[in-house]
Amino acid sequence: MPLTPEEREFLATFVYEATNGPPFGGPATRDLSRRGIWYPNLSWILTAYQRELCTEGKVPSGTYNPNPPPSPWENLQQVKLRNAVLKAELELQVPATSGAHTTAEH
Question: Among the four 7, 13, 64, 73, which has the fewest Cβ within 10 Å?
C-alpha cells in the first residue's frame, strides 16, 4: 500500500524540519514527540516516502509548512504497524540477488 495523501503531506513537513535548521525543531516534530514517536521510529515510512518521490522525479527534501496537518499516526504502535506493512512491501520490490554465478559468467 503506498503512502496515504495524509502521510505524504505530514512527511513533507517533517522531512523539511529534519533537514533544515534548526533540526527537528518544528511543529511536525513536536507533534510526533508528544505522541512518543521519534525519527528512528519512522525508518520504513521514510524509506517509502523517499522512494515514492524519487519514482515521481521529485527530490524528497520536504516542504516548509509552519502549520502542518496533525500526525497521521496516533501513537508509536500505529507507526510500528505501518512500518511493518511498508517494510514487507518494499522488500518485495527489491530484486532478489544471490552470490551464485552462472556458467555463462565464467
Answer: 64
Contact 71, 37 (CB under 8 A): yes
- The pTM (predicted TM-score) of the whole model is 0.83
- What's the pLDDT tens digit per position in 59-98? 999 999 999 999 999 999 999 999 999 999 999 886 545 4
Could you tell me the CA-to-CA distances from 11 to 43, 66, 69, 94, 101 in Å, in that order? Answer: 12, 13, 10, 23, 41
Question: Would you state the cell numbers that stand for residue 56, as one nine-digit string?
Answer: 515521481
pLDDT given for residue 1 in this prediction: 64
Ranges of each domain in the chain? 5-92
- Alpha-carbon distance of 8 to 90, in angstroms, equals 16
Q: Which residue has the cell 517494510?
A: 87
9 in Cβ contact with 69 (< 8 Å): yes
- Three cell numbers, residue 53: 518521490
State the distance between the two ends of the chain, measured CA to CA, in whole angstroms: 41
